[in-house]
């Protein structure tokens, strides 16, 4: 799925997929099952987009992971 920043709102497929990923994240030990379920529910998304959702949820849910991220200035 291709989209631009102005396309995003709370009802956009990628946002809904992100909510589903957040819900599924705690139910699984690894990324495979949540990613597969989100791809099944949102087939219009690309696998790499869904993997990025998992990475984002993983970082958001893991304080230790957030603290170890070295930010790069643009």
Description of the molecule:
- The longest helix is centred in the last third of the chain and has 15 residues.
- The chain is globular.
- The model has no long low-confidence stretch (mean pLDDT 88).
- Helix 1 crosses helix 3 and helix 2 crosses helix 3.
- It has four helices and no strands.
- The two termini are 26 Å apart.
- The relative contact order is 0.16.
- Helices cover 58% and strands 0% of the residues.
- The chain has one domain.
- With 74 residues, it is mostly helical.
Percent range of helical residues: 55-70%
User: The biggest beta sheet, please?
Assistant: none
The backbone outline, from C-alpha atoms, is globular
Low-confidence stretches: none
Report strand %.
under 5%
Spatial extent as radius of gyration: 13 Å
| Count of helical regions | 4
Total beta strand runs: 0
Keywords: Plasmid
Secondary-structure topology with pairs:
Elements: H1 13-25, H2 32-41, H3 47-61, H4 63-67
Helix pairs in contact: 1-2, 1-3, 2-3
Q: Quick gist of this model?
A:
This protein is mostly helical and 74 residues long. The chain has helices spanning 13-25, 32-41, 47-61, 63-67.
Give descriptors for this structure.
4 helices, globular, 74 residues, single chain, mainly alpha
């Amino acid at each position: 799925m291709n989209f631009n920043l102005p396309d995003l709102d709370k009802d956009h497929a990628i946002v809904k997929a992100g909510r589903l990923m957040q819900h599924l994240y705690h139910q699984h030990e690894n990324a495979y099952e949540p990613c597969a379920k989100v791809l099944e529910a949102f087939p219009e998304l690309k696998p790499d987009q869904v993997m990025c959702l998992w990475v984002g949820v993983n970082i958001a849910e893991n304080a230790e992971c957030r603290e170890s991220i070295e930010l790069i200035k643009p």
